[in-house]
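User: Structure please.
Assistant: Input sequence and predicted structure:
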Amino acid sequence: MSKQAKQNKVVDTTAKWEKLRQLRIAEETSRRASGTWGELMLGEVLHHDSGSVFVHTWKGSLRPDPVAGTTARAAGVSAADWPAFVAWKDSCGGEGFRSRVVGWNLSEDEAKRAKEALIASHRAAGREVANPVRA
């Protein structure tokens, strides 16, 4: 590859990254204006053997590990959900858990709606959901 071709390739890559950056900024601006931008993340912990699931939200970009062997309330699990989470975790045993991020940069209202929708979809699919039922 000639030196000129290599320089053109760098310019093309730079243009591509700049275009993606502009798209991201436009989406963030739109979401901030509509009130759906925030700092909450939405995730779920699935127990592979039982197929049961726990849905949780947390602040920040680092995913907490609520299954870690701590006796104190784990980051990302609300005080209201903690007793149900501990009972679920103990009933499933210590292995076979998998967690994943489902949503990010959510406002408080959007995270609540998304969490409720995710719980409802799991229940509709016949999975046991460890989160307590809210009245």
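The CA atoms of residues 18 and 24 lie 10 Å apart.
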